[in-house]
Amino acid sequence: MGNVILVYKVLPKDPKNLRDAKRELEGLGAERIEEEPIGFGITALKVTLIVPDEGGVQDNVEEKLSKLGSIQSFELLRYGRVL
User: Fold this and answer.
1) CA triplet 63, 14, 24: central angle to 5 degrees?
2) Residue 7: in which H helix or E strand, if any?
3) What is the span of the domain harbouring residue 9?
4) Helices H, strands E: what count in the chain?
5) How far apart are CA 50 and CA 15, in angstroms?
6) CATH no. for residue 45?
7) Which of 20, 23, 27, 42 could form a disulfide with 70 if both were Cys (CB 3.0 to 4.6 A apart)?
8) Distance CA 20, CA 31 (A)
9) pLDDT range class, residue 83, cuts 50, 70, 90
10) pLDDT (tens digit per residue) in 35-79
């Protein structure tokens, strides 16, 4: 099997301290983390992960995201195969 790419929009709990959120996301194996200004001083993080194409992998990633202490919420933006 190949790999899939997951792209999430993540909102940190503390918009003034993105470092903690980035550090935790890097611990999950994030390939890329981009800052995306939303407005009113709030910045979201666009996180790209490449994971094996196995059953339940998206659920596992989302479970890990929900357990991160610096993350308020997340939303899946893209799910696709890596060619």
Assistant:
1) 40
2) strand 3-12
3) 3-81
4) 2, 4
5) 26
6) 3.30.70.60
7) 20
8) 17
9) confident
10) 999 988 889 999 999 999 988 889 999 999 999 999 999 999 999
Query: What are the backbone angles phi and psi of residue 29, rounded to the nearest 5°?
Result: 95, 30
Nearest Cα residue to 36 out of 74, 17, 69, 9 = 9
Report pTM.
0.90
Q: Token pair 């991160």 is at which residue?
A: 68
- Please provide residue 26's backbone torsions phi and psi, each rounded to the nearest 5 degrees: -65, -35
Residue 14 has pLDDT above 90, yes or no: no
Q: What's the CA gap between 25 and 22, in Å, rounded?
A: 5
